[in-house]
Each structure stands twice: as C-alpha cells, then as structure tokens.
Amino acid sequence: AQSVTQLDSQVPVFEEAPVELRCNYSSSVSVYLFWYVQYPNQGLQLLLKYLSGSTLVESINGFEAEFNKSQTSFHLRKPSVHISDTAEYFCAVTPIAGGSYIPTFGRGTSLIVHP
Amino acid sequence: GAVVSQHPSWVICKSGTSVKIECRSLDFQATTMFWYRQFPKQSLMLMATSNEGSKATYEQGVEKDKFLINHASLTLSTLTVTSAHPEDSSFYICSARPGTYEQYFGPGTRLTVT
User: Fold this and answer.
1) How far is A49 from chain B (nearest CA, A)?
2) Is there a contact between A96 and A103 (Cβ–Cβ < 8 Å)?
3) How close does chain B come to A2, measured CA to CA in Å?
4) pLDDT at residue B50 above 80?
5) Residues with Cβ within 8 Å of residue A61, at least 6 apart in sequence
6) Using a CB-CB distance cutoff of 8 angstroms, which residues of chain A are in contact with residue B102?
7) Residue B48 pLDDT > 70, yes or no?
8) Which terminus of chain B is less hemmed in, N or C, by CB atoms within 10 Å?
9) Dihedral in degrees, nearest 10, Cα atoms A97, A103, A106, A109
10) Computed from CA positions of residues B38, B99, A101, A30, in that sequence, does the dihedral angle turn out positive or negative?
C-alpha cells in the first residue's frame, strides 16, 4: 500500500516570492509521482510527473519538482509565484508493480498568493 | 490532447430522484476510468474503478447499488446516483487513463440534492 503526506494544508506567500510545497510518500514498491493543480470548481490538471530519468522535472509554467528516493520526497517548487498560481495542489503516487496501478493522492496544499 | 469532458457541470435534483453524470474522453481511448468524490477543502476520494466492458470495482464503503457505474465504451463512462439524498451532494470528478499510469481529469460535476 502507498501513502502520501502533504505536510502543509495551506501555504500563504507574497507575489514574486519563492515557494515550496512538500510531499512525502511511503510505498513498498517503486512508484511514479505526480503533481496536480486544481482551480476552484474545476477538475485536476496534471502539472508535472516523474516516471524515470532525471530526478528534476519541470512544468511549462515555471514549477519544478525533484524526486528524492532516499528521502521519499517529491517537493514542488517555484522561484517566483504569481497571483494566478493560487490554487489547490495535490501530490499523487502510482505503484509501478502490483497490477492495479491505482493512484493515491495526498490531502492537498492550498497555495495562496497575496499581492 | 488528452481532454476529458463531464456532463452536466452542475445539477440540482430533488431528494429521491436519480441523476446520471457522463464522463467522456474526447481524443483518446480510455481503458480505465475512475470516479472520485471530493468534499470541500478535501482531497479526492476514489469511489470506483471501471474498465470498459466489465463491472466496476468499488472502494470499501461505497454502495454499488446507489452509485451505478457503466463503462459502455472506451470513451464513455457514466455514474448514476440513484435515489439521491442531500448527503450525496458533492463534487464528482472522473478521470480517464489511456495507458497504465497517467490519468486525465474531467472538470467535475457539482451535485446538489434538495
């Protein structure tokens, strides 16, 4: 079984400041990792993913996340946030082995960007 | 690419009636579709997993006779909330998976039962 822990339920930050949203996971098998963003009253949009290769993955809108196997973490970072980044962010893992490939989501972190 | 639609986007119904929500993958075929329920300020709760042509697999605690799921084709899955009650009011989100790992989410359906 897998579990995902997003340590911060809410992260307030001022515009143009850097931000890090933390995600830790536990799993008995190897996993793929994902970050999703959800704007109010909308579904989830894939922000970025780690499947294999370079442990640092980037999105088109300036977010990046680094897979750290030893620390079982996949923290999301952005060097300079915008008001439009205000949203709910979910970290998720999907087991590679086992057959079901059912994803497990964290509880979400609400990023609030203040002007 | 990888667009998933849901219809309706919001619905209000009276207690005791049934409501059907459609989930369509518009530009890919989905071998698997998921149905989630999301309460305000909370994460997604997986309700069931459906594979085209077979019965859905429901998560523990989800009443399969109340939440009927049909995955009739590789691009369409429906969730029917039967005999809806106010406690069924929620945000329902579907997702579709074309392969093994990645999934693409619909925009969600807001159900309000009065």
Assistant:
1) 9
2) no
3) 14
4) yes
5) none
6) 34, 46, 49
7) yes
8) N
9) 120
10) negative
DSSP state of B56: P
Pairing of strands B32-38, B19-25: unpaired
| Residue A38 bridge partners (DSSP) | A44, A88
At CB < 8 Å, which residues of chain A contact B? 32, 34, 36, 41-46, 49, 51, 90, 94, 96, 100-103, 105-108, 110
pLDDT of residue B83 exceeding 70: yes
Number of CB atoms found within 10 A of residue B114's CB:
9
Tokens of B103: 């999934």
Percentage of chain B beyond pLDDT 70 is: 99
Structure tokens at A103: 């994803």
Label each residue of A59-113 as H, E or C.
Answer: CCCCCEEEEECCCCEEEEEECCCCHHHCEEEEEEEEECCCCCCCCEECCCEEEEE
* The pLDDT value given to residue A98: 67
